[in-house]
Amino acid sequence: MTTGPGRRFSPADLTALAYAVLCVALLIWAVVVTAMDSTDESMAGVIPLLATAPTSLLFLALPEGPAFFVAAILVGALTNAAIIRWCGRALSRGLKRGTGE
Fold first, then answer.
1. Torsion angle of alpha carbons 77, 83, 86, 89, nearest 10°?
2. Per-residue pLDDT at 3
């Protein structure tokens, strides 16, 4: 593995990063939509919660509040991104072994 400006990212790294960025974008969208909704009936928070399930669902047992909601989404996104990265690397290793490289 090389370091420095010439470092190349694997597809697994890029996929995990894209997932994490998508989850953060969904969280920002949900916060903006909820802040603009004056009826207190916004269900926008469900979308990022489901996008980061199942880890974020475990954090629903924590006390209610915006800080715990954001923490649940961020922990869920980071956990799922790590799993996506791990799975991608394991699959690419298996493909390389199968082709004899």
1. -70
2. 56
